[in-house]
Design brief:
The protein is mainly alpha-helical.
């Protein structure tokens, strides 16, 4: 039996579970999800492979649990960095840049979400989707508020969410594939915001400068990261 790390068995299990998730994330970052075995993770935290099943049913369950525990607080942190009182257009721009900044500076979770989730069991994919819902809702809410304010085109129901998700996924993949995601971030964020606001903006919006010419996305990115 592994060494007791706390004053009670219940507390020990909580601490051990957190250690398992931390070690799994480290190993996924080093070796990749597919090349990291349950045995590797168990050895990393100093327990037998069979003991690991006391905490997670399989590797899919472990990855889904990792996303459930790390993604929501990450999203809350992103939201806290958006200034209060922003317009829908400004909020959507902040959401784009901050989401891509997260993927560039913390690439392990981003790689797992974009490269591995589709390979998981249906139940694990559903758990990941639920953990991701709050961020998707922020994007859709900002878009809807922009429509109501007269800044964005009104797209058919359901299309805006898919459109925004596909753009984020494509931009995220470009960052993940880059040799230096941090260095690529200004270019990718600038290209995405250019495309996003050119497509969504109405004539009234373009008069307010939503097309973002002349390198504005890079300047705004520097402001957000300051």
């Amino acid at each position: 039996m592994p060494r007791i790390r706390a004053a009670s068995i219940a507390e020990h299990k909580v601490i051990t579970r957190a250690l398992i998730l931390d070690k799994a994330q480290d190993l996924f970052a080093t070796w990749g999800y597919e090349d990291t075995s349950f045995g590797d993770i168990a050895a990393g935290v100093g327990m037998g492979r069979t003991t690991l099943y006391d905490y997670f049913t399989d590797k899919d369950d472990l990855l889904a649990s990792l996303v459930e525990e790390t993604l929501p607080p990450t999203i809350r942190n992103l939201m806290s960095r958006i200034p209060t009182g922003t317009t829908p257009v400004e909020r959507l721009r902040h959401l784009v840049v901050l989401t891509l900044e997260f993927l560039a500076t913390e690439p392990t979770l981003g790689r797992l979400l974009h490269r591995e989730v589709h390979k998981l069991s249906e139940s694990a994919r559903q758990r990941v989707a639920v953990a991701h819902q709050s961020l998707a809702r922020e994007f859709v809410d900002a878009y809807r508020a922009g429509v109501e304010a007269g800044d964005f085109k009104r797209l058919p129901p359901g299309l805006a969410g898919r459109f925004l998700n596909d753009m984020i996924m494509s931009a995220a993949q470009a960052l993940i594939d880059a040799d230096d995601p941090g260095e690529a971030l200004p270019t990718v964020a600038g290209a995405m915001t250019d495309l996003l606001f050119i497509v969504l903006a109405l004539v009234e919006g373009r008069k307010r400068g939503l097309h973002m010419v002349g390198g504005r996305p890079r300047a705004e990115l520097r402001e957000l990261r300051a």
